[in-house]
Amino acid sequence: MRIAIGGLEHETNTYATEPMGTTGRSHFQSGSGEELLNARGQRTFLGGFVDAAEAAGHEIVPTFWAMAGPSGIIEAGAYAEMKQELLERLAAAGPLDGVALSMHGAGVVEGIEDLESDLAAAVKEVVGDIPLVVPLDLHGNITPEMGEVIDLMLGVHEYPHTDSYDRGVECIELLPDLASGATRPTTAVVQMPLLLPTSTTDIQPAAGIRDRCLAAEAADERVIDATFFHGFPYTDVAATGASIVVTTNNDPALAQQVAAEIAAEVWASRQEFLSEATPPNVAIDLARRVLSEQGGPVVMNDTADNPGGGTPGDGTHLLLAMLDAELENACFGFVFDPAVATQAHEAGTGATIQVRLGGRHDDLHGAPVEASAYVKTLTDGRFIYTNQMLAGVRASYGPSARLVIGGDRRGENGFDVIVTSRRSQTFDREVFLLHGIDVNTRSFIGLKSSQHFRAGFRDLATAMIAADSPGLTTREVTVFEHPSANRPLWPLEPDLEWSPPTNT
Ligand SMILES: [Zn+2]
Questions:
Q1: In terms of domains, do 156 and 27 share one?
Q2: Of 61, 72, 320, 504, which sits most exposed with the smallest number of CB within 10 A?
Q3: 432 CA distance to ligand 1 centroid (A)?
Q4: How much distance in Å is there from the Cα of 452 to the middle of ligand 1?
Protein backbone atom coordinates (compact mmCIF):
# COMPACT_ATOMS: atom_id res chain seq x y z
CA MET A 1 0.00 0.00 0.00
CA ARG A 2 0.98 3.63 -0.51
CA ILE A 3 0.18 5.43 2.74
CA ALA A 4 0.52 9.17 3.25
CA ILE A 5 1.44 10.21 6.78
CA GLY A 6 1.38 13.63 8.42
CA GLY A 7 -0.43 15.54 11.11
CA LEU A 8 -1.22 18.71 12.98
CA GLU A 9 -1.34 18.43 16.74
CA HIS A 10 -2.33 21.12 19.21
CA GLU A 11 -4.14 21.17 22.53
CA THR A 12 -5.60 24.65 22.70
CA ASN A 13 -6.08 26.33 26.07
CA THR A 14 -8.44 29.18 25.26
CA TYR A 15 -7.78 30.71 28.68
CA ALA A 16 -4.05 31.09 28.05
CA THR A 17 -2.80 34.64 28.31
CA GLU A 18 -0.06 36.47 26.40
CA PRO A 19 2.55 35.64 25.25
CA MET A 20 0.95 32.19 24.93
CA GLY A 21 -2.52 33.64 24.38
CA THR A 22 -2.31 33.13 20.64
CA THR A 23 -0.29 30.45 18.91
CA GLY A 24 1.52 31.52 15.76
CA ARG A 25 3.38 29.57 13.11
CA SER A 26 6.70 30.02 14.93
CA HIS A 27 5.35 28.18 17.98
CA PHE A 28 5.01 24.99 15.94
CA GLN A 29 7.81 22.55 15.38
CA SER A 30 7.23 21.00 12.01
CA GLY A 31 8.69 18.74 9.40
CA SER A 32 8.12 18.10 5.71
CA GLY A 33 8.76 15.15 3.44
CA GLU A 34 11.55 12.80 4.46
CA GLU A 35 12.08 14.66 7.76
CA LEU A 36 8.99 12.88 9.10
CA LEU A 37 10.84 9.57 8.93
CA ASN A 38 13.06 10.81 11.77
CA ALA A 39 10.17 9.82 14.05
CA ARG A 40 11.18 6.20 13.50
CA GLY A 41 11.34 4.46 16.89
CA GLN A 42 9.89 7.38 18.87
CA ARG A 43 7.04 6.60 21.26
CA THR A 44 4.68 8.98 19.46
CA PHE A 45 1.76 8.71 17.01
CA LEU A 46 4.11 9.53 14.17
CA GLY A 47 6.73 7.04 15.40
CA GLY A 48 4.04 4.36 15.40
CA PHE A 49 3.02 5.24 11.84
CA VAL A 50 6.56 5.01 10.51
CA ASP A 51 7.52 1.81 12.34
CA ALA A 52 4.32 -0.04 11.50
CA ALA A 53 4.34 1.00 7.85
CA GLU A 54 7.98 0.00 7.43
CA ALA A 55 7.43 -3.30 9.24
CA ALA A 56 4.54 -4.17 6.91
CA GLY A 57 6.44 -3.15 3.80
CA HIS A 58 4.10 -0.30 2.88
CA GLU A 59 5.37 2.60 0.82
CA ILE A 60 5.33 5.67 3.09
CA VAL A 61 4.56 9.04 1.55
CA PRO A 62 5.64 11.54 4.22
CA THR A 63 3.84 14.87 3.80
CA PHE A 64 3.73 17.52 6.53
CA TRP A 65 3.51 17.34 10.29
CA ALA A 66 3.44 20.07 12.93
CA MET A 67 2.95 20.24 16.68
CA ALA A 68 3.02 23.01 19.26
CA GLY A 69 2.98 22.62 23.01
CA PRO A 70 -0.35 23.48 24.61
CA SER A 71 -1.07 27.21 24.38
CA GLY A 72 -3.72 29.68 23.26
CA ILE A 73 -5.88 29.78 20.16
CA ILE A 74 -4.09 29.17 16.84
CA GLU A 75 -3.80 32.19 14.55
CA ALA A 76 -5.97 31.78 11.46
CA GLY A 77 -3.09 32.61 9.13
CA ALA A 78 -0.76 30.11 10.78
CA TYR A 79 -3.33 27.36 10.47
CA ALA A 80 -4.11 28.23 6.85
CA GLU A 81 -0.41 28.07 5.98
CA MET A 82 0.10 24.66 7.59
CA LYS A 83 -3.12 23.26 6.17
CA GLN A 84 -2.11 24.41 2.72
CA GLU A 85 1.28 22.74 2.92
CA LEU A 86 -0.34 19.47 4.00
CA LEU A 87 -2.96 19.62 1.26
CA GLU A 88 -0.44 20.54 -1.44
CA ARG A 89 1.80 17.65 -0.49
CA LEU A 90 -1.16 15.25 -0.49
CA ALA A 91 -2.28 16.54 -3.88
CA ALA A 92 1.22 16.02 -5.27
CA ALA A 93 1.58 12.56 -3.74
CA GLY A 94 0.10 10.64 -6.64
CA PRO A 95 -2.21 7.67 -6.12
CA LEU A 96 -2.63 6.77 -2.46
CA ASP A 97 -4.34 3.85 -0.72
CA GLY A 98 -4.76 5.50 2.67
CA VAL A 99 -3.88 8.49 4.85
CA ALA A 100 -2.81 8.51 8.50
CA LEU A 101 -2.80 11.87 10.28
CA SER A 102 -1.83 12.49 13.89
CA MET A 103 -4.08 15.01 15.61
CA HIS A 104 -5.00 15.94 19.17
CA GLY A 105 -8.75 16.47 19.32
CA ALA A 106 -8.75 19.80 21.19
CA GLY A 107 -7.38 22.08 18.47
CA VAL A 108 -9.01 25.49 18.11
CA VAL A 109 -8.24 28.08 15.42
CA GLU A 110 -9.45 31.68 15.23
CA GLY A 111 -12.87 31.26 13.61
CA ILE A 112 -12.69 27.42 13.64
CA GLU A 113 -13.74 25.66 16.83
CA ASP A 114 -13.00 22.18 15.57
CA LEU A 115 -9.61 22.04 13.89
CA GLU A 116 -9.75 18.28 13.44
CA SER A 117 -13.00 18.18 11.46
CA ASP A 118 -11.98 21.13 9.35
CA LEU A 119 -8.62 19.61 8.44
CA ALA A 120 -9.99 16.10 7.92
CA ALA A 121 -12.73 17.36 5.60
CA ALA A 122 -10.20 19.30 3.53
CA VAL A 123 -7.92 16.26 3.36
CA LYS A 124 -10.75 14.01 2.21
CA GLU A 125 -11.60 16.49 -0.50
CA VAL A 126 -8.07 16.28 -1.85
CA VAL A 127 -7.42 12.54 -1.55
CA GLY A 128 -10.89 11.31 -2.48
CA ASP A 129 -12.47 8.07 -1.40
CA ILE A 130 -9.63 6.42 0.48
CA PRO A 131 -9.56 5.76 4.23
CA LEU A 132 -8.37 8.43 6.65
CA VAL A 133 -7.21 7.12 10.04
CA VAL A 134 -6.43 9.44 12.94
CA PRO A 135 -5.03 8.71 16.41
CA LEU A 136 -6.16 11.25 19.01
CA ASP A 137 -5.24 12.32 22.53
CA LEU A 138 -7.80 11.35 25.19
CA HIS A 139 -8.01 15.05 26.08
CA GLY A 140 -9.78 15.74 22.81
CA ASN A 141 -13.17 17.46 22.93
CA ILE A 142 -14.69 15.12 20.38
CA THR A 143 -17.46 16.20 18.01
CA PRO A 144 -19.91 14.11 15.97
CA GLU A 145 -18.46 15.85 12.89
CA MET A 146 -15.07 14.25 13.59
CA GLY A 147 -16.79 10.87 13.74
CA GLU A 148 -18.41 11.50 10.38
CA VAL A 149 -15.49 12.82 8.38
CA ILE A 150 -12.69 10.67 9.85
CA ASP A 151 -13.04 7.02 8.82
CA LEU A 152 -11.38 5.68 11.95
CA MET A 153 -10.25 7.57 15.02
CA LEU A 154 -8.37 5.81 17.79
CA GLY A 155 -7.93 7.60 21.08
CA VAL A 156 -5.14 6.84 23.52
CA HIS A 157 -6.41 4.84 26.48
CA GLU A 158 -3.72 5.75 28.98
CA TYR A 159 -2.99 8.93 30.92
CA PRO A 160 0.05 9.31 31.11
CA HIS A 161 -0.23 8.71 27.38
CA THR A 162 2.11 5.73 27.24
CA ASP A 163 0.17 4.19 24.36
CA SER A 164 0.42 6.96 21.74
CA TYR A 165 2.88 4.84 19.76
CA ASP A 166 0.58 1.81 20.00
CA ARG A 167 -2.37 3.79 18.65
CA GLY A 168 -0.21 5.00 15.75
CA VAL A 169 0.76 1.40 15.00
CA GLU A 170 -2.86 0.27 15.24
CA CYS A 171 -3.96 2.93 12.74
CA ILE A 172 -1.53 1.60 10.15
CA GLU A 173 -2.34 -2.04 10.89
CA LEU A 174 -6.06 -1.46 10.35
CA LEU A 175 -5.63 0.48 7.10
CA PRO A 176 -5.41 -2.47 4.65
CA ASP A 177 -8.80 -3.86 5.71
CA LEU A 178 -10.33 -0.40 5.55
CA ALA A 179 -8.93 0.11 2.06
CA SER A 180 -10.15 -3.28 0.81
CA GLY A 181 -13.59 -2.84 2.34
CA ALA A 182 -13.17 -5.87 4.62
CA THR A 183 -13.69 -3.47 7.53
CA ARG A 184 -16.41 -0.82 7.30
CA PRO A 185 -16.00 1.36 10.37
CA THR A 186 -19.15 2.84 11.91
CA THR A 187 -18.56 5.29 14.72
CA ALA A 188 -20.76 6.53 17.57
CA VAL A 189 -19.76 9.66 19.46
CA VAL A 190 -21.61 10.09 22.75
CA GLN A 191 -20.80 13.54 24.11
CA MET A 192 -21.29 13.89 27.82
CA PRO A 193 -22.13 17.13 29.67
CA LEU A 194 -19.13 16.53 31.89
CA LEU A 195 -16.17 18.74 32.71
CA LEU A 196 -13.46 16.66 34.37
CA PRO A 197 -10.23 17.69 36.08
CA THR A 198 -7.15 15.80 34.88
CA SER A 199 -7.63 12.18 35.87
CA THR A 200 -4.81 9.67 35.56
CA THR A 201 -5.66 6.14 34.45
CA ASP A 202 -3.14 4.87 37.02
CA ILE A 203 -5.89 5.03 39.64
CA GLN A 204 -9.68 5.02 39.95
CA PRO A 205 -12.07 6.08 38.63
CA ALA A 206 -10.38 6.61 35.24
CA ALA A 207 -8.57 3.24 35.49
CA GLY A 208 -11.88 1.39 35.75
CA ILE A 209 -13.40 3.19 32.76
CA ARG A 210 -10.25 2.49 30.72
CA ASP A 211 -10.57 -1.20 31.63
CA ARG A 212 -14.26 -1.14 30.72
CA CYS A 213 -13.39 0.21 27.25
CA LEU A 214 -10.73 -2.44 26.71
CA ALA A 215 -13.17 -5.14 27.86
CA ALA A 216 -15.75 -3.90 25.35
CA GLU A 217 -13.16 -4.23 22.59
CA ALA A 218 -12.22 -7.73 23.72
CA ALA A 219 -15.78 -8.97 24.23
CA ASP A 220 -17.04 -8.55 20.68
CA GLU A 221 -14.92 -8.76 17.56
CA ARG A 222 -17.25 -6.30 15.84
CA VAL A 223 -16.02 -3.61 18.27
CA ILE A 224 -12.88 -2.15 16.70
CA ASP A 225 -12.30 0.52 19.33
CA ALA A 226 -13.89 1.97 22.45
CA THR A 227 -12.27 5.05 23.98
CA PHE A 228 -13.08 7.22 26.96
CA PHE A 229 -12.11 10.75 25.97
CA HIS A 230 -11.68 12.77 29.15
CA GLY A 231 -12.00 16.04 27.22
CA PHE A 232 -9.97 19.19 27.82
CA PRO A 233 -11.69 21.44 30.36
CA TYR A 234 -9.43 24.43 29.66
CA THR A 235 -10.87 24.93 26.18
CA ASP A 236 -14.08 26.89 25.87
CA VAL A 237 -15.85 25.63 22.75
CA ALA A 238 -19.29 24.16 22.22
CA ALA A 239 -17.98 20.59 22.40
CA THR A 240 -15.95 20.99 25.60
CA GLY A 241 -16.40 17.90 27.71
CA ALA A 242 -15.90 14.18 28.04
CA SER A 243 -17.14 11.69 25.46
CA ILE A 244 -17.22 8.01 24.63
CA VAL A 245 -16.31 7.04 21.09
CA VAL A 246 -16.99 3.52 19.87
CA THR A 247 -16.26 2.22 16.39
CA THR A 248 -17.65 -1.08 15.16
CA ASN A 249 -17.36 -2.98 11.94
CA ASN A 250 -20.47 -2.06 10.00
CA ASP A 251 -22.83 -2.00 12.99
CA PRO A 252 -23.84 1.54 13.94
CA ALA A 253 -26.50 0.35 16.40
CA LEU A 254 -23.94 -1.70 18.31
CA ALA A 255 -21.51 1.25 18.36
CA GLN A 256 -24.20 3.47 19.82
CA GLN A 257 -25.29 0.86 22.35
CA VAL A 258 -21.76 0.19 23.67
CA ALA A 259 -20.93 3.91 23.79
CA ALA A 260 -24.15 4.66 25.69
CA GLU A 261 -23.49 1.87 28.19
CA ILE A 262 -19.99 3.09 28.98
CA ALA A 263 -21.13 6.73 29.10
CA ALA A 264 -23.78 5.79 31.65
CA GLU A 265 -21.07 4.21 33.82
CA VAL A 266 -18.86 7.30 33.59
CA TRP A 267 -21.82 9.49 34.50
CA ALA A 268 -22.63 7.32 37.51
CA SER A 269 -19.06 7.66 38.79
CA ARG A 270 -18.71 11.41 38.06
CA GLN A 271 -18.44 12.43 41.71
CA GLU A 272 -15.32 10.26 42.13
CA PHE A 273 -13.46 12.36 39.56
CA LEU A 274 -13.57 15.39 41.82
CA SER A 275 -11.18 15.50 44.75
CA GLU A 276 -10.50 17.86 47.60
CA ALA A 277 -8.03 20.56 46.59
CA THR A 278 -4.69 20.13 48.34
CA PRO A 279 -2.96 23.49 48.67
CA PRO A 280 0.87 23.46 48.68
CA ASN A 281 1.25 23.70 52.47
CA VAL A 282 -1.09 20.75 52.98
CA ALA A 283 0.72 18.78 50.27
CA ILE A 284 4.00 19.45 52.09
CA ASP A 285 2.56 18.20 55.41
CA LEU A 286 1.40 15.04 53.66
CA ALA A 287 4.80 14.62 52.01
CA ARG A 288 6.60 14.92 55.35
CA ARG A 289 4.35 12.27 56.83
CA VAL A 290 5.01 9.90 53.92
CA LEU A 291 8.75 10.50 54.23
CA SER A 292 8.78 9.63 57.94
CA GLU A 293 6.65 6.52 57.46
CA GLN A 294 7.79 5.14 54.09
CA GLY A 295 10.89 7.07 53.12
CA GLY A 296 11.43 9.02 49.93
CA PRO A 297 11.57 10.37 47.42
CA VAL A 298 8.15 11.98 47.64
CA VAL A 299 7.02 13.86 44.56
CA MET A 300 4.84 16.95 44.78
CA ASN A 301 3.43 18.11 41.45
CA ASP A 302 2.42 21.70 40.79
CA THR A 303 -0.80 20.78 38.99
CA ALA A 304 -2.16 24.31 38.59
CA ASP A 305 0.88 25.50 36.61
CA ASN A 306 1.23 22.66 34.16
CA PRO A 307 2.80 23.99 30.95
CA GLY A 308 1.52 20.76 29.38
CA GLY A 309 -1.92 22.36 29.63
CA GLY A 310 -0.94 25.81 28.39
CA THR A 311 0.22 27.58 31.55
CA PRO A 312 3.21 29.95 31.99
CA GLY A 313 5.55 27.43 33.65
CA ASP A 314 7.03 30.12 35.88
CA GLY A 315 4.51 29.87 38.70
CA THR A 316 5.86 29.87 42.23
CA HIS A 317 3.06 28.78 44.57
CA LEU A 318 4.53 25.34 45.27
CA LEU A 319 8.16 26.45 44.98
CA LEU A 320 7.69 29.25 47.53
CA ALA A 321 5.88 26.89 49.91
CA MET A 322 8.70 24.34 49.66
CA LEU A 323 11.31 27.04 50.33
CA ASP A 324 9.30 28.42 53.27
CA ALA A 325 9.01 24.93 54.72
CA GLU A 326 12.82 24.65 54.69
CA LEU A 327 12.61 21.09 53.40
CA GLU A 328 15.88 19.23 53.56
CA ASN A 329 17.35 17.29 50.66
CA ALA A 330 14.78 18.78 48.30
CA CYS A 331 14.89 19.78 44.66
CA PHE A 332 12.56 21.45 42.18
CA GLY A 333 12.62 20.86 38.45
CA PHE A 334 11.90 23.19 36.86
CA VAL A 335 10.99 26.84 36.44
CA PHE A 336 10.77 28.46 32.99
CA ASP A 337 12.72 31.69 33.30
CA PRO A 338 15.06 32.54 30.39
CA ALA A 339 16.23 35.78 32.04
CA VAL A 340 17.48 33.98 35.15
CA ALA A 341 18.98 31.17 33.05
CA THR A 342 20.89 33.80 31.06
CA GLN A 343 21.93 35.57 34.26
CA ALA A 344 23.34 32.30 35.62
CA HIS A 345 25.19 31.54 32.36
CA GLU A 346 26.74 35.02 32.36
CA ALA A 347 27.84 34.69 35.97
CA GLY A 348 29.29 31.21 35.51
CA THR A 349 29.46 28.18 37.78
CA GLY A 350 30.57 28.91 41.33
CA ALA A 351 29.12 32.42 41.26
CA THR A 352 26.47 33.63 43.65
CA ILE A 353 23.77 35.75 42.08
CA GLN A 354 20.73 37.67 43.27
CA VAL A 355 17.69 36.34 41.45
CA ARG A 356 14.09 37.26 40.94
CA LEU A 357 12.93 33.87 39.80
CA GLY A 358 9.63 33.11 38.10
CA GLY A 359 6.33 34.84 38.67
CA ARG A 360 6.94 37.12 35.68
CA HIS A 361 4.02 36.08 33.57
CA ASP A 362 1.07 37.26 35.62
CA ASP A 363 -0.27 37.63 39.15
CA LEU A 364 -2.26 34.41 39.11
CA HIS A 365 0.64 31.96 39.39
CA GLY A 366 2.51 33.50 42.34
CA ALA A 367 5.13 36.14 43.12
CA PRO A 368 8.79 35.96 42.04
CA VAL A 369 11.21 34.18 44.37
CA GLU A 370 13.71 36.79 45.58
CA ALA A 371 16.84 35.03 46.72
CA SER A 372 20.56 34.70 46.66
CA ALA A 373 21.45 31.67 44.58
CA TYR A 374 24.62 29.69 43.96
CA VAL A 375 25.20 28.66 40.35
CA LYS A 376 25.96 24.97 40.61
CA THR A 377 25.54 23.61 37.07
CA LEU A 378 25.09 25.13 33.62
CA THR A 379 23.83 23.13 30.65
CA ASP A 380 22.47 23.46 27.11
CA GLY A 381 19.17 21.93 28.25
CA ARG A 382 19.40 19.02 25.81
CA PHE A 383 18.73 15.39 26.63
CA ILE A 384 16.65 12.41 25.53
CA TYR A 385 13.58 11.30 27.46
CA THR A 386 13.58 7.79 28.89
CA ASN A 387 10.06 7.57 30.35
CA GLN A 388 7.51 5.10 28.98
CA MET A 389 5.57 7.86 27.28
CA LEU A 390 8.29 9.69 25.34
CA ALA A 391 11.30 7.38 25.29
CA GLY A 392 13.67 8.37 22.50
CA VAL A 393 12.21 11.84 21.96
CA ARG A 394 14.72 14.68 22.17
CA ALA A 395 14.13 17.48 24.65
CA SER A 396 15.66 20.91 24.18
CA TYR A 397 15.06 23.36 27.00
CA GLY A 398 17.67 25.90 25.92
CA PRO A 399 20.32 27.34 28.26
CA SER A 400 19.53 25.93 31.68
CA ALA A 401 20.96 26.13 35.16
CA ARG A 402 20.85 24.42 38.51
CA LEU A 403 20.74 27.02 41.25
CA VAL A 404 21.10 26.38 44.96
CA ILE A 405 19.05 28.60 47.24
CA GLY A 406 19.78 28.87 50.96
CA GLY A 407 22.94 26.80 50.93
CA ASP A 408 26.36 27.67 52.24
CA ARG A 409 28.79 29.74 50.19
CA ARG A 410 29.88 26.66 48.26
CA GLY A 411 26.28 25.90 47.37
CA GLU A 412 25.97 22.93 49.66
CA ASN A 413 23.03 21.96 51.87
CA GLY A 414 20.64 24.20 50.03
CA PHE A 415 17.52 23.81 47.91
CA ASP A 416 18.20 22.88 44.30
CA VAL A 417 16.12 24.60 41.61
CA ILE A 418 16.51 23.97 37.90
CA VAL A 419 15.79 26.91 35.60
CA THR A 420 15.24 26.54 31.84
CA SER A 421 14.80 28.77 28.82
CA ARG A 422 11.93 26.79 27.31
CA ARG A 423 8.53 26.09 28.73
CA SER A 424 7.54 22.46 29.38
CA GLN A 425 6.12 20.17 31.97
CA THR A 426 8.48 17.68 33.62
CA PHE A 427 8.21 14.17 32.19
CA ASP A 428 11.04 12.24 33.81
CA ARG A 429 14.25 12.31 35.82
CA GLU A 430 16.49 13.13 32.87
CA VAL A 431 16.35 16.91 33.33
CA PHE A 432 17.56 16.37 36.90
CA LEU A 433 20.33 13.98 35.84
CA LEU A 434 21.46 16.49 33.22
CA HIS A 435 22.07 18.92 36.06
CA GLY A 436 23.79 16.40 38.32
CA ILE A 437 20.84 15.51 40.54
CA ASP A 438 20.01 11.86 41.20
CA VAL A 439 16.38 12.12 42.27
CA ASN A 440 16.52 8.62 43.80
CA THR A 441 18.61 10.02 46.63
CA ARG A 442 16.32 12.99 47.33
CA SER A 443 13.63 13.26 50.00
CA PHE A 444 11.36 15.74 48.21
CA ILE A 445 10.97 16.45 44.51
CA GLY A 446 8.86 19.35 43.27
CA LEU A 447 7.88 19.52 39.61
CA LYS A 448 5.37 21.03 37.19
CA SER A 449 2.92 18.59 35.63
CA SER A 450 -0.60 17.35 36.23
CA GLN A 451 -0.35 13.62 35.47
CA HIS A 452 2.18 12.81 32.71
CA PHE A 453 5.10 12.94 35.16
CA ARG A 454 3.76 9.69 36.62
CA ALA A 455 5.18 7.76 33.65
CA GLY A 456 8.66 8.85 34.69
CA PHE A 457 8.32 8.88 38.48
CA ARG A 458 5.81 6.22 39.55
CA ASP A 459 8.50 3.56 39.78
CA LEU A 460 10.80 5.61 41.99
CA ALA A 461 8.53 7.72 44.23
CA THR A 462 7.01 6.50 47.49
CA ALA A 463 4.13 8.91 46.91
CA MET A 464 2.98 11.47 44.34
CA ILE A 465 0.99 14.32 45.84
CA ALA A 466 -0.76 16.96 43.75
CA ALA A 467 -0.42 20.49 45.11
CA ASP A 468 -3.21 22.68 43.79
CA SER A 469 -3.33 26.48 43.84
CA PRO A 470 -4.61 29.30 41.68
CA GLY A 471 -3.45 28.69 38.12
CA LEU A 472 -4.59 28.08 34.56
CA THR A 473 -4.71 24.31 35.06
CA THR A 474 -6.11 24.15 38.57
CA ARG A 475 -8.18 21.07 39.37
CA GLU A 476 -10.96 23.49 40.32
CA VAL A 477 -12.44 23.43 36.82
CA THR A 478 -15.51 25.35 37.97
CA VAL A 479 -13.48 28.57 38.38
CA PHE A 480 -13.41 29.00 34.59
CA GLU A 481 -16.29 30.64 32.76
CA HIS A 482 -17.50 28.56 29.83
CA PRO A 483 -19.58 30.99 27.76
CA SER A 484 -19.12 29.02 24.53
CA ALA A 485 -19.66 25.52 25.88
CA ASN A 486 -22.91 23.67 25.39
CA ARG A 487 -24.82 23.90 28.66
CA PRO A 488 -25.76 22.51 31.03
CA LEU A 489 -22.42 21.04 32.04
CA TRP A 490 -21.64 19.20 35.25
CA PRO A 491 -20.25 20.24 37.77
CA LEU A 492 -20.97 23.83 36.67
CA GLU A 493 -24.59 22.74 37.02
CA PRO A 494 -24.18 20.43 40.01
CA ASP A 495 -27.77 19.14 40.06
CA LEU A 496 -27.75 18.14 36.40
CA GLU A 497 -29.43 14.87 35.52
CA TRP A 498 -28.46 13.18 32.28
CA SER A 499 -28.66 9.86 30.52
CA PRO A 500 -26.97 8.90 27.26
CA PRO A 501 -29.00 8.77 24.04
CA THR A 502 -29.50 5.17 22.95
CA ASN A 503 -30.98 5.72 19.48
CA THR A 504 -28.70 5.95 16.45
ZN1 LIG B 1 -3.49 14.56 26.71
A1: yes
A2: 504
A3: 23
A4: 8
Domain count, the chain: 2
Parent domain of 451 = 280-474
Per the CB < 8 A criterion, the answer to whether 273 and 206 are in contact is yes
Q: How far is the CA of 377 from the centre of ligand 1 (A)?
A: 32
CA–centroid distance, 349 to ligand 1, in Å, is: 37
* Distance of alpha carbon 291 from alpha carbon 276, whole angstroms: 22
Residues 371 and 302 grouped into a single domain: yes
CA torsion 320→325→329→334, rounded to 10°? -10
Query: What end-to-end distance do the CA atoms of the chain give, in Å?
Result: 34
CA dist 231 and 228 (Å) reads 9
At residue 504, the pLDDT reads 53
Q: String of b and e for 320-337 (b: at least 16 CB within 10 Å)?
A: bbbbebebeebbbbbbbb
For residues 285 and 265, membership in a common domain is answered with no
Ligand 1 center to 298 CA (angstroms) = 24
Q: Are residues 21 and 162 in the same domain?
A: yes
Say what the pLDDT of residue 407 is. Answer: 87
Q: From the CA of 370, how far away is ligand 1's center (Å)?
A: 34
- Among 215, 246, 273, which residue terminates a domain? 273
How many residues appear in the chain? 504
pLDDT in tens, 40-71: 999 999 999 999 999 999 999 999 999 999 99
With beta carbons less than 8 A apart as the criterion, state whether 395 and 463 touch.
Answer: no
